[in-house]
Structures
1.
Amino acid sequence: MRKINFVQAIDLHVHTKYSGDSKITPKELVDQLHAHPFIKGVAITDHDTIRGYEEVSKLAKTYEDILIIPGIEVSVENGHLIILGVEECPKYPSSIESVIDFAKERDGIVVIPHPYRELGIGDISEDIEADAIEVPNPHATQEENKKAENLARKINLPCVAGSDAHSLQEMWRAYTKVDAKQEIEGILKAIKDGRVKVATTK
Ligand SMILES: [Zn+2]
Ligand SMILES: [Zn+2]
């Protein structure tokens, strides 16, 4: 079996101030990412907007060491769904199926965030075509994360993680090691293929 080198460390779930419920500014985010010793990638996953991603990616252009992945934490009728690799919002209100189609038509991938926490889609996850499950989520309880882990095993989906940070102190608490080069397409493919490993920091 090929040995896997997890060369990228990426926080796949961060909110900027454009989420409304987060205090993190795009400038702070870029500075923190540039300063971090090994986490060099982040997915901007604001609630139902791409504005934070647009601003962060513009600011990040001056740095060669960091990668910004576009994402949206989409509000669907039953809770939240994260799409990665997509630079536009779906129409609202959106059903889970329409968001998944929307993401796939644009070569994006679909992550089910915090399935058993508040605003998680729960057992519905078993009946949809997602690409990965978020576990652990630092805001979920141990029990909720355990249930999410069992779900991922049951439906055979890779686990990915992000901090779900809404403040600077919360950033990087959970992240994903990815076996890919530092470019978006390869990273999304590695996630789909399960060449990922989740990690947490203290
Ligand atoms: Zn959420
Ligand atoms: Zn979130």
2.
Amino acid sequence: MAQLGVGIIGCGNISTTYLKFAPIFKSLKLVAVADLNMAAAETRAAEYGVRADTVEGLLAAPDVNVIVNLTIPGAHYAVSKKILEAGKHAYSEKPLVLTLDEGKELRDLAEAKGLRVGSAPDTFLGGSHQLARALIDEGSLGRIIGGTSHIMGHGMEHWHPNPDWFYQPGAGPILDMGPYYITNLVQLLGPVTSVAALTKATFTERTIGNGARNGEVFPVGTPTDIHALLEFAGGATVTLGASWDVWKHRHANMELYGENGSLFVPDPNFFGGTVETTEKGGDITTVEERGHPFGVTNQEGNDGTARANYRCAGLADMATAIDEGRPHRCNIDLAVHVVDVMTSILKAGAEKRFVEMTTTCERPAALSPNEARALLV
Ligand SMILES: NC(=O)c1ccc[n+]([C@@H]2O[C@H](COP(=O)([O-])OP(=O)(O)OC[C@H]3O[C@@H](n4cnc5c(N)ncnc54)[C@H](O)[C@@H]3O)[C@@H](O)[C@H]2O)c1
């Protein structure tokens, strides 16, 4: 198959993951990196043996077909728009954009130019989430009637040296972490039709707890404690808790309740983990893995445990889909719908009411073990 020449704009923290994992996928040929900060681009280029370019140079580069947008969330829309205007396919880190209008504009622009837009997260392509998907699709759980999903902690100012932006509009637990959980719910259950929420910021200021700015206090400008209800077109009702105000909790990352049993899904922020299920009210049992390559551990996590990490899988699927003339899984309709859900949760909380979705999407196609294997070198 034809390889796509890949460029990256944004050479910060997450760029090392993309530069490390792109070479394990057949359809991707890493070519060049760029950043507003040329020194950052030069550092990454030297580390990974690719070309350092200016942003304008990369946008014009004839050997680059797709550009990965790894800039900060507030720059995603403008940078992805520039990529499309330059006639190249775009693949963005999450969240795709910060408003629904921005998402629709990118979708229209891509369509008019015959280009693809893809967006992280691609963790739902991981072995565990595809196993959960297969169990739902096989039907033994019956219709999924509801569930819960929780993303809770006490934020990142105790370890992150520059945590300010996480607490401003455009971030917060819903826009920063919500994409993993909501995208996985949509791939498992289908699109959302309406949401309600209660939202607040318990702490109006945060204090940096490490690094050069240790002790500095900054204001919080967005809700950090969100309790939402999601109604799915398929009939399921899911409670979503997203908070950076909680020290400890005992909620599972994701539980789904079917007519004939329950399904326990591991953290959608990662590709792997244990899937458990019950047959009606029977014991909770671990579901045996089915040899999905994107569940195989290949990395040590921050806590020292072995982890499966196949970031770039969504990008590789998009490159293969372009070659094969089929839809890609981490597509713009899915990403725009997830932006609609997230921004509607914040709106529902601000206005204390139900908000109807104005977008919808297809569930992305399941990714079988064989299809996943075919993406790898
Ligand atoms: N860091 C992580 O672990 C992680 C994990 C998953 C997803 N993400 C997502 O990836 C994206 C990047 O995160 P990060 O942690 O790497 O951020 P970062 O701040 O470390 O790096 C961002 C880089 O983008 C550059 N940049 C900003 N605006 C630009 C512009 N307009 N044009 C060109 N370059 C620009 C900056 O100079 C910087 O080098 C975010 O959307 C984040 O949500 C990060």
